[in-house]
Amino acid sequence: MALVALALAGYVTNGLWADPYTHVLSDNVGDQAFFEWLMGYGYYTVTHGADPFFTDLLNAPLGVNLAANTSITVYTVLMTPLTHLAGPQVSFVTVLTLNLAGSAFAWYLFLRRWLVRNAGAAAVAGLFCGFAPGFISHANGHLNWTAGWVAPVVLWQVLKLREPGRWLRNGIVLGLLLAMGFSIAAEGLFYTALASGVFLGVWSLGKAVRDEARAAMPTVARALGVAAVVAGVLLGYPLYMHFAGPQTFSGTGFNQRFFVEDLASYLSYPTRSVGALFGLHSDLAPNRTEETSFFGIPMLLLIVVSFVLLWRRADPGRRATLRAVGVVGLVFVVLSWGPRLLINKHEYDIPMPYAVLAYFPLFDAALPVRFALVAVGVIGILLALIVDQLISRRIPLGGLHAGLSAAVVVSLLPLIPLPLVTQHRAAEPAFIANGTWKNYVPEGGTLSALPMAMNVSADGQRWQAYTMARGGRQFRIPDGYFLGPQTTGELGRKQIGRIGAPPLATDWLFLRAAWYGYVTQLSNADRAQARSDFAYWGLDAVFLPPEITGSDHQTLDRGAVETTARDLLGEPEQVDGVLVWRIRRGVDPVDR
């Protein structure tokens, strides 16, 4: 099973493995650059003793609160040897591949241990959970969300809390898992905790198991107390940084009315699936990275029929489990619809439960569309149970057995994933790779590629990541792709977040040239503004590489950027294949 899962994960990510240095995920260039940056910063953290939850290397001079971002600290530390030897690019695709394979394998082990006897049933459901449409969609750049193995591992330990006489050990283990899960996939851990709470609450109310639940409650309560203490000690500082540290903000940098699940998307197929080859997919997701449901009509019908059949054949104790699983599925499906009901891209003015929850802490920072990922686990559990009965022939051979077996095949075949789409990205320039930049930037100085690093022009952030992975002294960069406050100070802490730094006139000048090919006639007022912006960033030099690349298959206009830079800063030096302009703070660019 482990080998099958790893082979399928390698198949999905083979476009990156073909050339991890110059290939990038087409549908999410920015997030891949950010997670590669985190890999490089992980090596910098270990070798320089830096703070893993705050850095001033990005977004100079203010810095970035990494605890309020998806910082995957455990991964970045564990991968430091590979990051140093092969680069953040290889560490990124390695973690991505192992995440997908590990998720399928962890679900297989969980289902085999807790729900079904048959390894084949656990394998089918495990592969579905690990490579479900939502996780393949998030494989476009999200190392946190592809860590789907966190859910079954945490759930496994939650179910062990009731073991008599082992509350201390089980509590310590759960506390360690919570600390690890927070540092890898905090939002996913939040959903797992909610799902666990809903499941245990509904299950405990079942008449057939009420006495059993009451007897287990003292042991579980003690174990949870231990887990809270252990996790609290380990997460004290990162939680402080997340909620009260510098550069924090309120809520999220994304629109919760936009990032919701379209009700019709549950009936469709994802973009990267066999079903899409036959034109069965629909463009109903907020973007290609958030196709979190897309199970298709056959799968939904199979699950409904399977639930009814399993319920009728179950004893009272198993019915308590099925009821709890079903309620979890319904709750999270409804939450995924967000504040207003959306059907086939049309928003109806019908308030949904999330309209109230959106004002509560934690919920205000979550994206409703991602609640649909919990449905993957629910479907996986029901799929494992029905396939187990089919393989073991507890459903006798005959019309029902044949019909259900065919339904399983018809439901799963269209969901078989296709490889992720990749595109070319600019190779690292020799100016960076050879360390020539050190001749232009003093210790603690600031350097920027042109255009400045943002989510749609991520080259500069990637190249800083590569220098961090090599070790030695480091330069800072302005801007970057991250989540941060709208503005500085207490006002920024109270407002919702934003993607990247608040733009200044000069970074917009170069981004506009790169993205739209727009070249403006510069005045001395523009140069005065640039002097001010350069001084704010503390820039010592800027450089223009021979090739610049962006997101969404966009070819950036290098010629327009060069024309703008020459008009603003004069003639450059040509060094190691790049054009370099030294910046004298408060002097450059000079008026003309």
Topology:
Blueprint: H1 2-12, H2 14-18, E1 23-25, H3 29-48, E2 54-55, E3 64-65, H4 73-78, H5 80-86, H6 88-114, H7 119-130, H8 133-138, H9 150-160, H10 167-204, H11 210-244, H12 274-277, H13 297-313, H14 316-336, E4 340-343, E5 346-351, H15 354-357, H16 373-391, H17 399-412, E6 422-424, H18 430-433, E7 446-449, H19 459-470, E8 483-484, H20 489-494, E9 498-499, H21 505-516, H22 524-537, E10 539-544, H23 558-569, E11 573-575, E12 578-582
Parallel strand pairs: 7-10
Antiparallel strand pairs: 1-6, 2-3, 4-5, 8-9, 10-12, 11-12
Helix pairs in contact: 1-6, 3-5, 3-6, 3-19, 5-6, 6-7, 6-9, 7-16, 9-10, 10-11, 10-14, 13-16, 13-17, 14-16, 21-23
Concise synopsis of the structure shown:
Keywords: Membrane, Transferase, Transmembrane, Transmembrane helix. GO terms for molecular function: transferase activity. With 592 residues, the protein is α+β, with helices and mostly antiparallel strands.
Number of helices: 23
Question: How much is the radius of gyration in Å?
Answer: 26 Å
Q: State which percent range the strand residues make up.
A: 5-15%
Low-confidence stretches: none
What helical percentage do the residues reach?
A: 40-55%
Taking the sheet with the most strands, its summary is: 4 strands, mixed
The secondary-structure class comes to: alpha+beta
Global morphology: elongated
Beta strands, count:
12
Describe the strand arrangement of the main beta sheet, using strand numbers. 7-10-12-11
Distance between the termini: 69 Å
Mean pLDDT: 94
